Amino acid sequence: MNKNQINKSRMFGTVDLVLDNHSALFTTFVELNSAHQKLKDGQLLIGQYRQVQEADSSGLTKNKILLKADVINGILKFSSALRAFATASKNAELKTKSHYVESELKKTPDPILYDIGVLLLGLASLVKTDLIKYAIIEADYTATSDLLASFKLAYAQPRVATTESKVSTRNISDVFKSLDKLLKDEIDELMLPFQFTQPDFY
């Protein structure tokens, strides 16, 4: 929330407290009771949206960075084995398809990095028996496949968190506008008779 919204939120809370403290004076005033409940509901919404806004998503980003490093290592392991096998078997096409270097992988966008990992797993699966000689065993396929699945989930999460925060910012703005209107057009007007009967409350 911005500074203006924080100040307004405090003001809404003050109005709510005053109405709570004098609720005995308008127990039969249905319209004012209804307006007061709308004020409470609006404050509850503001609190919910504020929690989403202020949620710390830095942990999601850190997790993704660590996973990306592991994914790159996994890709390089498969790339090295495939290149060695391709060289030994004189398979120029496979050598070209499996040629990746760390410096380029670090600059590669996450979705493309994920696709590269899947591609290399697919190429390796076709020559699985031959790659045992080059230090690729069954456990490497499972571990890298699981790692890629986790990475795909991780690189989407920070974007989702940012989107949710932006949506909450728009929503919270709408609630403030609604409560402003509620105070000016309803509560202020409904309070007018109390200036004569209950001046302290008014």
Question: Which short descriptors sum up this protein?
Answer:
mainly alpha; rod-shaped; 202 residues
Summary, kept brief:
This protein has helices at 3-21, 30-54, 58-88, 92-97, 102-107, 110-126, 128-131, 138-191, 194-197. The mean pLDDT is 87. Helix 2 (30-54) packs antiparallel against helix 8, helix 3 packs parallel to helix 6 (110-126) and helix 6 runs antiparallel to helix 8.
Account of the protein in words:
The structure is a single chain. The protein is mainly alpha-helical. It is built from nine helices and no strands. The chain has helices at 3-21, 30-54, 58-88, 92-97, 102-107, 110-126, 128-131, 138-191, 194-197. It is rod-shaped, with a radius of gyration of 31 Å. The model has no long low-confidence stretch (mean pLDDT 87).
The number of helices is 9
Spans of at least 5 consecutive residues with low confidence? none
**Strand residue content:** under 5%
The number of E-state strands comes to 0
Sheet with the most strands, sense and barrel status: none
Structural class by secondary-structure content = mainly alpha
The pLDDT mean sits at 87
Write the H/E string, N to C: HHHHHHHHH
Q: C-alpha Rg, in Å? A: 31 Å
